[in-house]
Amino acid sequence: MTESQSAKAAEAESEEYRVSALELFFDLVFVFALTQVTALVAEDLTGLGLLRGLAVLMAVWWAWVGYAWLTNAVPIEDDDRARVVVLVSMAAMLVLGLAIPHAFTSDGVLFGVTYLVFTILFLVLYSVSTRDDPDMNRAILRLAPGVLVAPVLVAVAGFFDAGEVRAALWVIALTITFVAPIVSGTGGWRVRPAHFAERHGLIVIIALGESLVALGLAASGKELTAPVIVAAALGVLVLGCLWWLYFDVVSLIAERRLHELTGQERNALARDSYSYIHLLMIVGIVMVALGLKKVLTYADEPLSVIPAVTLFGGVAIYLLGHVAFRWRNIHTLNVQRLVVSILLLALIPLGAVVSAYAALAVVAALATGLVVFEAVKYREPRKAIRHGY
């Protein structure tokens, strides 16, 4: 890269802008995909059903991640051609979402093909938009083979009736998807910290919003007795705690850490903290959504195994994501969140013994206790972080 090109790239990277209306519009199809994942697992409350749901969620997540990097590096709001490509991508994602409930049966090929179309559109738009930035253009071309193989394998899996073959192809596809960004390296990418952090913060809110919708729909089908109302309120309390734990100071510290770094160090942190570790948080939230939905179904009866796993384990996985996020960003261990996550995992068998309402109350108490503990113990550091001094 010439000196003038380097200067131009540095200037572009330092230019910050907010998440656009088009990006928010694009994310709405991701909301639909999340609801479909929840529905997929809800219809098959077995270990295999949960694994299938998580596999689909991972595929959808990595599809979204590609566009998050694209819109962070290349402003698309003012480019009519880019707008058209993004809108077509939304149509592909919507069809992909429609195929999710039968992604491992009758709609496996449709799921794989729309996944492939979605990926190709992302690669074409990214490569065309970065023609004036050779380093970034080479970076996307390095990544292209890895991200193209996965949807092809998923589509091929749809042609097989044998569950073992399908499962093997899915495992290979997801493994390649996870490994490809690491193998291709971090050189050449551009990260605008404020926009990147905001975009991922918004996707956390979107996932929490989907959980609220799942809770509301489950409650709306019940007679509004006092236990149902209390359970709905406790569900909102749990989701509110998940929101608090991320947006109180965690998101602020992470964004400032991104600002402090430059070049490949910043790129690696963005990839690890947001593309990889945020997946744990999204998985946790989606599991919680299913758990909350099933609490209102089981009511005074104990939860079965998978709903108990999703309710307790979902919050635990979300917290473990926070522990990993903090470790990757500032290399310190969040002991209290680690302890609560371990406690939640240990309490999963409790969900199969006490009533579903009581299980939800236990989860709500632990989540609330964690928020209160941190708010009191770290009052002054929190204040300093939130006010920037």
The number of helices is 15
Run of helices and strands: HHHHHHHHHHHHHHH
What is the CA-atom radius of gyration, in angstroms? 21 Å
Could you report the average pLDDT, rounded to the nearest whole number?
A: 90
Low-pLDDT residue spans = 1-12
| Major β-sheet profile | none
Number of discrete domains? 2
- Sheet/helix structural class: mainly alpha
Beta-strand content: under 5%
Span between N and C termini? 38 Å
Number of strands: 0
Portion of residues within helices: over 70%
General form: globular
Explain what this protein looks like in three dimensions.
- This protein has helices spanning 3-14, 21-42, 47-73, 80-99, 108-129, 134-157, 163-184, 193-220, 226-247, 250-260, 263-298, 305-330, 335-346, 356-377, 379-386.
- The protein has 389 residues and is an all-alpha fold.
- Helix 2 packs across helix 8 (193-220) and helix 11 (263-298) runs antiparallel to helix 12.
Could you write a compact summary of the structure shown?
Helices cover 81% and strands 0% of the residues. It folds into 2 domains: 1-190, no CATH class; 192-389.
Name a few traits of the molecule.
389 residues; 15 helices; disordered N terminus
List the helices and strands and how they pair.
Elements: H1 3-14, H2 21-42, H3 47-73, H4 80-99, H5 108-129, H6 134-157, H7 163-184, H8 193-220, H9 226-247, H10 250-260, H11 263-298, H12 305-330, H13 335-346, H14 356-377, H15 379-386
